[in-house]
User: Fold this.
Amino acid sequence: MNRDKMIDEIENFAGIWDIIIIGGGATGLGTAVEAASRGYKTLLLEQHDFSKGTSSRSTKLIHGGVRYLQQGNISLVLEALHERGMLIQNAPHLVHNQAFIVPTYDWWRGPFYGVGMKVYDLMAGKFGLGPSRILSREQTLAKIPTLEPKGLRGGVKYYDGQFDDSRLAINLAQTIVSLENTPINYMKVTGLLKSNKMVNGVQAKDMESGKEYELNGRVVINATGIFTDTILKMDNPSAKKIITMSQGVHLIFDQHFLPGDSAIMVPHTADDRVLFAVPWHKRVVVGTTETLVEKATLEPCAFEEEIDFILNHAAKYLTKDPSRSDILSVFAGIRPLVNPAGSKGTAAISRDHFLLVSEYGLITITGGKWTTYRKMAEDTIDQAALIAGLEERQSITKNMRIHGWLKNIDANEALHYYGSDIFAIKKLIESQPLLGDKLHDKLPFIKAEVIWSVREEMARTVEDVLARRTRALLLDAKASMEMAKETARLMAVELDYDRAWEKEQVLLYKKLAINYLPS
Ligand SMILES: Cc1cc2nc3c(=O)[nH]c(=O)nc-3n(C[C@H](O)[C@H](O)[C@H](O)COP(=O)(O)OP(=O)(O)OC[C@H]3O[C@@H](n4cnc5c(N)ncnc54)[C@H](O)[C@@H]3O)c2cc1C
Assistant:
């Protein structure tokens, strides 16, 4: 996957794209895979890097959503559980089965959650990942020795999926390329083209070269997450806002706070949220929060209250209270929630996806979650084919392997998250053994990954490599800053950039990464 080649493709393509998609997060990338796999000529434009927005900032769960079960949203849970099952089949190198334990401190909660989880098992049916079980106090503590023992009565164990969000995004982009279609990063849509009042293309600006393009398409799809309303306004300046934004924050801690393989799920926090503490890449991710925000931004920052909220709640459930100085990284993401008229507070707003066709033929797809991106894409392309007058073709993505597909890969093996690409990366190291060297002694990432992400994953900046190709920024923000210089040097050689570029990249990266450390 190579950006120069993508630019050549848009410059040399004389025809009309069947489908143009704006936005390279889970929704846009999934929609492009769906379109390309049905044989429609597809172009995807992302203003920054793939998954720079919300899609690299999730809790990293592929889940039915126990919370939605509590809310009685059965159809959403069913859909998500089925999608979870399919995704584990289609991207086994990135999505794996994760055991969760709900600790119970009241006598009645064990049986209550036990029944709830049995319903969850039943709903998953053949897509189930393993039967849930009620655990005794001893069994619970054996699974999670660092769980607060005071008042603990037992727990309920159940299973859900866990994944690496930005790695899946990159693999989706590679899948689009392998289907001979065109995803491109750092290409911002600045306007919509119209003919006879109907949308028939986009104006776009290459954010690297500054070059502007007019690109024609039979249909245009707005998959821009929290920026949805901006594109809707390009279509119709008097369009009503449909997005409400809710920020969620996660903290990353060392593994010793949660040793072992099991995650903790707390179904009810003080503000009626679900709190997770999940092992991830040999660290622990703890979150999340739900804070209404007004401004759509690609770099949201955690509020002090959000950090305090998570620290306080983590302290309630863990024997050793994590403090600010234990935080290795803090990251925030913003949910694009579709606001049905009259609802109050974000917890009540629908997590279902939302498909809208404007009077000028612009299709908007938003809401939903990572877990359901494929179903969102299927619904969107069914609609898009109709509007574009394309030949109707059935979806094949339910059973379609995603780039990197590799079964039975050991999650403890270095580089496992590359799936089948692991063999090519190992060859690269064989040819240049120094590329096997680590970039930092606190993190597992090696020099070969920098080279690989530039050559094969369209990484363009130090941030692309450290935040989304590897997850160094999220796993240890300070260590990642110390990796920036060598990363820039390796990239500059690959991309033929000079020393000034290297220096600027390091500065830019450090400026960004400092926001991932608590003040
Ligand atoms: C805190 C938090 C935790 C979550 N946890 C989970 C979870 O564990 N499991 C789960 O299934 N879901 C989870 N979600 C939900 C999931 O992350 C989102 O539903 C999903 O990532 C949304 O993807 P998207 O593609 O719609 O938006 P985004 O990922 O934001 O993508 C939109 C893209 O559009 C681009 N764009 C905007 N304007 C333009 C333009 N003019 N031109 C070109 N490109 C443009 C942006 O740069 C951006 O990359 C979580 C969400 C949050 C906030």
